Amino acid sequence: MILDIEAGDILPAKDAIALMDQTDLGPSIDVPEIPENAHPENITEEEREFLQGEVRRLKKERNALILAHNYVPRDIQDVSDVIGDSLFLAQQGAASDADYLVEPSVLFMNQILAALKKPHQTVLAPSLEALCSLAAHADVTKIRDWKEEHPDGIVISYVNTYLEVKAESDYCCASANAGKVTLHILENSGAKQPILFLPDVFLGFYAAKLLESKGHSLDRLHLMMGACHVHERIRPHHVLEQQQLHPEAITVVHPECGCTSACMRQVNEGIVPEDMLQFRSTQGMIKLVEEVPHPEVIVATEVGNLHPMSKAVPDKTLIPASREALCAYMKQNTLQNLYECLRDLKHEITVDPELARRARIPIERMLEIV
User: Fold this and answer.
1) Same domain (yes/no): 274, 221
2) Residue 91 CB partners (closer than 8 Å, separation 6+)
3) Angstrom distance (rounded) from CA 144 to CA 206
4) Angle, in degrees to the nearest 10, between helices 260-268 and 236-245
5) Residue 361 is assigned to a structural domain of this protein
6) Among the listed residues 106, 105, 84, 79, the one whose alpha carbon sits nearest the alpha carbon of residue 95
7) Which terminal Cβ of the chain has fewer Cβ within 10 Å, N or C?
8) Is the peptide bond before 120 cis (omega within 30 degrees of 0)?
9) pLDDT tens digits, 89-108
10) Same domain, 255 and 336
């Protein structure tokens, strides 16, 4: 067995899967404090009314579209034009003709819009502190080394990566279409072409199991040892405890979670019926709770997603697998700095034109395979 593995290393899929629960996948960058005013209870109703009113006025005045991720504070979600996961926001942003695309999210998402935007458009971010621990695990040097070792290899980068990584990739994917993208490549490439999936090893495991279920060998697949520090900390015991407390509840898990392998094992071994434990992307979770008849749903993802889910199904009880699953990076976006962003037209996100040209190829392929 391979030893001394660290985040960012690239391994054959079978080794990566064997080691993913033993490897330190904690953040390689500082995790900031969540601003006090990111918590809705710390804003007075008077402040909220003023800020939301100004945001609505300014976005109309500026011809701006606000695209908010599901994990940002609910005060931002309530005043945004589009709420969704990274794939949905990229689709909606690419289709928009608004003069300003304002995206409260983490910065790799703003970079996607900056790469796809039309000439007249400007991309703005409320906070420049909204980084991403998962994206930070994607080491461009290691990717280039792998490509040099595997000149006919195909690189799939998860959307949670910065533009430099996307520019080194052949395809991007989101959690909603990771399996579809990987299967598309298997069906449209040489039988022995190696494939690298990066950087999230838990999502890579999920994609690998989908491939095996379709009769494909994992011998040609390589995975990067990376993780979102928020999702990675949602462990099997979190889900099990809630299942014991709520035996009639259906469970839905984001495949970035550290409980993914254990939850898949529960289904594969018949411990939990497949229809009672499902895997969905951030946006897919909302669709699922709308469709299932169950009045209680255990949700394994960042707790910010409970807000749009509860708006979609106000009559259902949504139970977070872990109440501590808070992304401090997403919460750097606040109603106050969203207002200041629109008022002062800051912070503009620009990307190198050549980098954008190269990155658009895998991004556009992601948008096509849904």
Assistant:
1) no
2) 367
3) 24
4) 50
5) no
6) 84
7) N
8) no
9) 999 999 999 999 999 999 99
10) no
Determine the residue type at 317. Answer: T
What whole-number percentage of the chain has pLDDT above 70? 99
Q: Are residues 40 and 84 in the same domain?
A: yes
Nearest to 351 by CA among 103, 172, 110: 110
pLDDT, tens only, 19-63 = 998 899 999 999 999 999 999 999 999 999 999 999 999 999 999
Q: Give me Rg for the CA atoms of the chain.
A: 20
Report the number of distinct structural domains present in the chain: 3
Collapsed DSSP state (helix, strand, coil) of residue 329: coil
Residue with tokens 């999210």: 105
In this prediction, residue 3 carries a pLDDT of 61
The domain containing residue 300 runs over which residues? Answer: 231-320
**Bigger pLDDT: 190 or 112?**
112
**Helix, strand, coil shares of the chain as percentages rounded to 5?**
45, 15, 40
Strand partners, 66: 102
The first and second tokens of residue 242, run together, are: 């809630």
